Amino acid sequence: MNNIVIIGASVSGHNVAWRLREKNKACKITLISEENYPAYDHLKLPDLISGTISEKDIFLCNEEDYSKQNINLIKNKKAGGLNIQKELVYFKDKGSINYDILVIASGRGPVIPDLPGAKKEGVYRLYTLDDAKDFLKRYIAHPVCIVGSNSFALKLAEAVSEKYGVEIKLLSRVAFDPSQIPQNTEVIHDSVQEIIGEGETQAVKLASGKALGVCAVLFMDNYKSNIDFLKNTDIQVKDDFVLVNGWMRTNNVDIFACGSVVRKDSVVISMMLVDHIINKLGEENVRDINAVR
C-alpha cells in the first residue's frame, strides 16, 4: 500500500503531499489539480487584483519543486467519480487513476446563483487564478457590487476599490464592525434578485425593489464543496461537508479528507492526518513482508 492520491491542489492538498514526502521517501504521491497551475494561495487573489503582489507571489512552489520531491502533479484534470471497490478515481473527461490511500482536499468555492441575467458579461466569482484574470480583463469605471458576508469579501472590496478607485456596494447578510469596512464601501443588507443590462451588467435589482447601478458583480456568498465526484458512493456527507473522525478519516478506512471540505481543519489536524497515513503505510508494509515470509 504505497500509492497515495490527493484530489485537489489546494493549500491543504499541497501541504499533505509535502509532509507525506518529508516523512516517507518511498511511497508514490500524486496530486491532482483541476487547474493549469501548481498549488497557490487562493486567499491572496484580492492582493493580486489590487496589484500589491504579482502572479508569481501567490504560488506555494513551482512544478520543478514537485519533480524534485518526486510528487506527481496532474494538471487540468477534474475528478468525476470514484469506484471504491476497485480503488479508482475517474476523471471527468477521460481516464482514471488507481489509489491505495485517497485524500480529498478539493476545497469549497463560491457559486454564481441561478438568477435572471447571471450569464451576462460582468458577472463573476473569485475562487481561482483564472477567475481573477477574467475579472481583471473587465473595464471598471463605475461602482462594483460584491455579494459576501465574510472577511474575504471585505478584503476583496478593499482590493477592487484600491485598484480602480470606484465605490463598492457590499451586499451582506451580517453587520460588520465599522472599523473593518474599507473606504469607498457601502454595506447594504439586501440581496440580488436580477442582473440588469443589455448584454452586459449595468445594474442589479435587489430584493427590496431598489436598483443599483454597477458595472460588475462578484458573488462571494454561496459556497459549495467540490465533491460532486462522491455522488453514488457511500462516503458520508452532511450539509455539504465530508464527515471525518479525529484522524480526518472518512467512513472508509482508506479515504481521508482535509481542508475546507470538512468542518474541522487546521495545520495541527492536517499533521495528524499525515501521521495516521504514515502509520497506516507502515502497518501495511509489515503485513506485506509477513505475507511473503
Automatic annotation (TrEMBL):
Keywords: FAD, Flavoprotein. This is FAD/NAD(P)-binding domain-containing protein. It holds the Pfam family Pyr_redox_2. One of its GO terms (molecular function) is oxidoreductase activity. Belongs to the FAD-dependent oxidoreductase family. It comes from the Bacteria. The keyword Calcium does not apply. SUPFAM superfamilies: FAD/NAD(P)-binding domain. Transmembrane segments: none annotated. Residues 3-262 form the FAD/NAD(P)-binding domain. Its cofactor is FAD.
